[in-house]
Design a protein that fits this description.
The longest helix has 43 residues. By secondary structure, this protein is of the alpha+beta class. It is built from four helices and seven strands, in the order H-H-H-E-E-E-E-E-E-E-H. The protein has two domains: 74 residues; 91 residues, PH-domain like (Roll). 13% of the residues are buried. It is elongated and about 70 Å long. The two termini are 37 Å apart. The chain has a four-stranded antiparallel β-sheet with strand order 1-2-3-4, with helices on both faces.
Length: 177
Amino acid sequence: MNAIAHRLYRIHNGIASMLLIAALICMPKLVSLLMDYASHDQRYAYAIAREASGWMNFIVPGGAYGLFWVIWNIKRTDLRIKATQPPGFTACFEIRRGDQYFGIAQDRSCIVIVDMEVDFATCQPLGFVQTFIIQQVDSQSELSLRFNSFEYPSMRFRVKTRAASAIAAKINYALWP
C-alpha cells in the first residue's frame, strides 16, 4: 500500500473509531429511552423517541459502522500474522499495537514481524534482531527494535512507562539466552 493510500486508510480508521466512541457515549441515553418506553404508555415514549430521532439516526448506524471496522482491522492483522507464522509457532514474547506485531518463538528459533503500514511481514531467525532500545521521555516510553535488514531496518512501539522495565527484561531473556 503506498503512502497516500495508507494515510487515507488511517484517517478512515480514525473516523470509524470516533463513530464507535460516540455511539458508546450515547448508549445511556438509548437505554433511558428504552426504559421510558417500558415504564410509560406508548404515546409518551413515542414523543421522546421522535425528539431523539435526529441523533439516533446518526449514532446507531455510525456506531455499528465503527464497530465493524475495528473488528475487521483486528481480523485482517490476525490473518496476516497467522499466514506469516511457521507451523507450530508459539510466542514466548509478543507485542502488538494496531497494525504492528513482533513475536519471538518459545523455542527461540525464529521471530515473526508484521507491519501492515508498510506491507511487510516476515519470519526470520533470531539473529535478525540487531538490538532493542527502550526510550523514556516524560510519561511516554517507546520500544525500538533494530533489524539486520535494509528493507525494514527498525520497528517502534509505544509502551507503558511503568511496564517498560518488565518488557525490556522479557525481550532480553527471549533474545539472548
